[in-house]
């Protein structure tokens, strides 16, 4: 059923400043979508609204047939933990936890830590981190920390992955590695990936490219390759 945004708008502050205006779009299950545009275009705000991390001022959003704008906090929290993964420009790892403990943190919330430990080890191996599972974030490089954050986002096998500038703080080699990981996860697991990026090369790696300007969608190739 995917994600359906209907006439979504967003304003901040008083007097209100409009950041998103009347956005309607449908993202099918399994799509890999990039959101791009100049600074201030509204791409990160749209990602946060689509992912339920922020509420729209107008309109509504459905994910998997559920209106997330009408969920109570407990229902929304459970939906996020079981259906969604999040990756940000900064990794937000917990300094006091080891690599494997950080990956398992979402599972701990649902008391599924032991059940999902084999998957955590599998993810760490996939991302080249299995030899460092007992290290703390400060003992890892920037690229390793970001790959660890992606592993954490994937531990629950989310149906939807939301990524806000996941390569923004990385060098070229690590950025390309992260992009390959996201592409593989989308293709292998039929996971919907929505990624904000300012980098045109990384935006072009997504089969569907949505471009925003002044809070509006000005380009959407609908998943078709550009001619």
Overall description:
The chain has 227 residues and is α/β, with parallel strands linked by helices. 35% of the residues lie in helices and 26% in strands. The chain has 8 helices and 10 strands. The strands form 2 sheets. It has a 6-stranded mixed beta sheet with strand order 6-7-8-3-9-10, sandwiched between helices. The protein starts with a strand and ends in a 7-residue tail after the last strand. 41% of the residues are buried.
Using brief descriptors, characterize the structure shown.
about 230 residues; alpha/beta; 6-stranded mixed beta sheet; 4-stranded antiparallel beta sheet; globular
Concise description?
By secondary structure, this protein is an alpha/beta fold. It is 35% helix and 26% strand. Strands 6-7-8-3-9-10 form a six-stranded mixed beta sheet, sandwiched between helices.
- Beta-strand percentage? 25-35%
User: How many beta-strand runs?
Assistant: 10
Average residue-wise pLDDT = 90
Q: How many angstroms separate the termini?
A: 28 Å
The general outline is globular
The succession of helices and strands, N to C, reads EEEHEEHEHHHHEHEHEE
The largest sheet, given as strand count, sense and whether it forms a barrel, is: 6 strands, mixed
Count up the helices: 8
Strand order of the largest sheet: 6-7-8-3-9-10
| Category from helices, strands and their pairing | alpha/beta
- Given as residue ranges, the uncertain stretches (5+ residues, pLDDT < 50) are none
Percent in helix:
25-40%
Radius of gyration: 17 Å
């Amino acid at each position: 059923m995917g994600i359906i945004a209907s006439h979504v708008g967003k304003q901040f502050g008083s007097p209100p400043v409009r950041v998103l205006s009347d956005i309607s779009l449908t993202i099918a299950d399994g799509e890999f979508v990039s959101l791009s545009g100049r600074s201030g275009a509204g791409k990160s705000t749209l990602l946060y609204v689509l992912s339920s991390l922020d509420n729209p001022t107008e309109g509504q959003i459905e994910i998997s047939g559920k209106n997330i704008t009408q969920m109570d906090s407990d229902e929304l929290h459970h939906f996020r933990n079981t259906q969604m993964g999040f990756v940000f420009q900064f990794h937000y790892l917990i300094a006091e936890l080891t690599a494997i403990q950080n990956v398992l943190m979402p599972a701990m919330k649902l008391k599924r830590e032991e059940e999902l430990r084999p998957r955590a080890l599998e993810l760490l191996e996939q991302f080249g981190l299995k030899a460092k599972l007992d290290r703390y974030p400060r003992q890892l490089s920037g690229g390793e920390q970001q790959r660890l954050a992606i592993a954490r986002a994937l531990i629950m096998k989310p149906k939807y992955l939301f990524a806000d500038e996941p390569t923004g703080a990385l060098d070229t080699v690590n950025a390309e590695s992260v992009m390959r990981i996201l592409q593989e996860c989308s293709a292998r697991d039929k996971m919907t990936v929505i990624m904000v990026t300012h980098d045109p090369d990384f935006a072009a790696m997504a089969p569907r490219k949505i471009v925003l300007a002044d809070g509006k969608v000005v380009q959407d190739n609908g998943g078709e390759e550009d001619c």
